[in-house]
Amino acid sequence: MDAQGIKQCLEDSGLRCTPQRYSVMSFLMEHAGHPTAAEIFEGVNRLDPRSSRATTYNNLRDLVQAGLVREVAMEGRAARFDAKGAQHHHFICDKCGKVEDIDWYTVPQPGSESLGKRIVRECELIVRGLCTKCVPRRASQNSSRVVSAV
Amino acid sequence: MDAQGIKQCLEDSGLRCTPQRYSVMSFLMEHAGHPTAAEIFEGVNRLDPRSSRATTYNNLRDLVQAGLVREVAMEGRAARFDAKGAQHHHFICDKCGKVEDIDWYTVPQPGSESLGKRIVRECELIVRGLCTKCVPRRASQNSSRVVSAV
DNA sequence: ATTTCATATTAGACATAATCTAATTGCTAT
DNA sequence: ATAGCAATTAGATTATGTCTAATATGAAAT
Ligand SMILES: [Mn+2]
Ligand SMILES: [Mn+2]
Ligand SMILES: [Zn+2]
Ligand SMILES: [Zn+2]
């Protein structure tokens, strides 16, 4: 997406397109690897304009609230972020913690008898296991069996 | 589950059944509300024996590694824990952050063309929205529409 | 062009969650 | 009893994220 597109995107969500906010959004769109807030802060400040740590956090909060960015909470580690482009699921590696996109497919919602009066906004599927780099060579199918159905 | 059952459970997983570890496991089994580490620490120390904060964290780590306990990472807030009893999904409230159990049902795994060489250990479904307490009275179905399929 | 004023940014202090360290204690096997 | 490993402990430390209060910015009104 080009600069004008990002600007449009922000303003459609009621957010002013400030240089700092633009940088965060732009960085996320060209770095699909689910960076942490610290990585985003570093990344946008490698080039001008300088943005402060607080502003990076503020803008990430605003972008998440506006639904343009997704925050993925990690056990023990720093949260990771991605621009909500095409819908997709996530794979999280047990060993290295890497977050990878998985092609989107529809997942059935819980039945209304389970949900009661709750109002559903979204369903999120997280697949866990070992990423390509962490799968041991000649992995025996015994040691880490692929689950059959879940 | 009775005391002997918990002891068995721990030892089957190669964990010694120490008083502190037992307390954590027992507390989680009788408090299904997804407590934080701090709440567990407080809870087990209301009665003897006294357990330290470090030990509470250590034992939670051990129990998660052994697959007896699940850790649910929360954006910004402290992680929450539950004893892995019957399989179930989770509902997380956008507003108050409460984690609630949702009846389990099978969710289709990603196809092997998406997974590549990755090895899947589990698929986790997280439903997000407003919990019963946070749904506004006479909620108009316009303001927060139930997603049709996801 | 100037004023106005809500919004955004900033540095750094602060808060919270989680981990680490090094000393001690408790088990279990011999 | 002794040895040796595992577990616990208090407190320090790190990591992550939030808050504050002062300043800057930009869009709208005059
Ligand atoms: Mn993603
Ligand atoms: Mn649960
Ligand atoms: Zn990995
Ligand atoms: Zn709620």
Provide an overview of this structure:
Two copies of one chain form a homodimer. Chain A is an alpha+beta fold and 150 residues long. In chain A, 33% of the residues lie in helices and 21% in strands. The first copy, chain A, folds into two domains: 1-83, Winged helix-like DNA-binding domain superfamily/Winged helix DNA-binding domain (Arc Repressor Mutant, subunit A), CATH 1.10.10; 86-135, Dna Ligase, domain 1 (2-Layer Sandwich), CATH 3.30.1490. Chain A has five helices and five strands. Chain A has helices at 3-12, 19-30, 37-46, 53-65, 112-115; strands at 69-72, 80-83, 88-93, 99-103, 119-130. The longest helix of chain A is centred in the middle third of the chain and has 13 residues, at 53-65. The radius of gyration of chain A is 18 Å and the shape is globular. The model of chain A has no long low-confidence stretch (mean pLDDT 91). Chain A binds chain B through residues 71, 73-76, 79, 89, 91, 94, 100, 102-103, 105-111, 114-132, 135, 139, 144, 146-147, 149-150, and chain B through 71, 73-76, 79, 89, 91, 94, 100, 102-103, 105-111, 114-132, 135, 139, 144, 146-147, 149-150. β5 of chain A pairs antiparallel with β5 of chain B. Chain A binds a DNA duplex (30 and 30 nucleotides) through α4.
Question: Notable features of this structure?
Answer:
homodimer, 150 residues, alpha+beta, Arc Repressor Mutant, subunit A, Dna Ligase, domain 1, 2 domains, 3-stranded mixed β-sheet, two-stranded antiparallel sheet, 5 helices, 5 strands, 33% helix, 21% strand, globular, binds manganese (II) ion, binds zinc ion, DNA-binding
